[in-house]
Write a structure and sequence with these properties.
With 234 residues, the protein is mostly helical. It has helices at 2-5, 16-40, 45-60, 77-84, 86-103, 112-137, 142-171, 178-210, 216-221; strands spanning 64-67, 70-72, 226-228, 231-233.
């Protein structure tokens, strides 16, 4: 039960054919990310990507119990897309997942496609779409940037967790209620998302106050942003 409800999917939870399909999906998605990331990477973004990947690796190693029999961890997808963009951000998360699976046996090797699809592709995509929307409509202030990181983190984490529900419906190997799994995943990962959102908001606000030019989302969605004492202005 513990393996089914944790964000990382273990070997055997999803059957072989469905796991293989999602390996193909993950490889295809990462290939697109690599192609698009080549356009974004420059002398400013490359070092930031390394720092983001290291930070995500550190926070994902901190597994904690949320409810009896249910564990989880932070994802870092929203922080990644805000600081380095969707393509590089997805690659950062995927790299961390591969290292965890290969070196620390955190997540099954046969389930690597499932985990990458959920956390590196679905979660970051959902977060990025929300970030793109909110930064265009909210006031141009530091508080709005922090609120965007918080909201996008919660939604991104929950959407990523519900990706597992779809995969379990397609090829689950245990006799558990799909409705019960969906409710547990959504509820637990809402709490995780709140924790992740607070960390992401604090981090991006700190970076934006000191070096707004290093925040990808500000460069992408706000024309020539600068930081004033009262917030971020164009």
């Amino acid at each position: 039960m513990d393996d089914v409800q944790a964000m990382h999917i273990a070997n055997g939870i999803i059957n072989g054919p469905v796991s293989l399909i999602f390996i193909v999906i993950a490889v295809a998605g990462l290939a697109v990310c690599v192609s698009r990331a080549k356009v974004d990477l420059d002398d400013r973004l490359a070092p930031m990507a390394g720092l983001v990947a290291a930070f995500i690796f550190a926070v994902q190693m901190l597994n904690f119990q949320v409810l009896p029999g249910v564990s989880g961890h932070l994802l870092g997808g929203t922080l990644a897309v805000i600081l380095v963009g969707p393509w590089v951000g997805a690659l950062c998360v995927a790299t961390v997942l591969l290292v965890q699976a290969l070196v620390f046996a955190d997540g099954g090797l046969t389930a690597i496609g499932l985990n990458i699809t959920n956390m590196a592709l679905i979660g970051t995509a959902a977060a990025y779409l929300l970030v793109a929307l909110l930064l265009r409509i909210l006031p141009r202030t530091i508080a709005s940037l922090g609120a965007t990181a918080l909201i996008a983190s919660i939604i991104g984490v929950v959407v990523a967790s519900l990706g597992f529900v779809v995969e379990y419906a397609l090829g689950g190997t245990t006799q558990l209620s799909l409705g019960g799994i969906a409710a547990t995943m959504a509820g637990v990962h809402t709490l995780i998302g709140i924790g992740e959102g607070l960390i992401a908001a604090t981090t991006v606000v700190t970076v934006a106050r000191v070096r707004p030019d290093l925040v990808y989302a500000l460069r992408a969605f706000r024309k020539q942003p600068t930081v004033a004492k009262t917030g971020v202005t164009a």
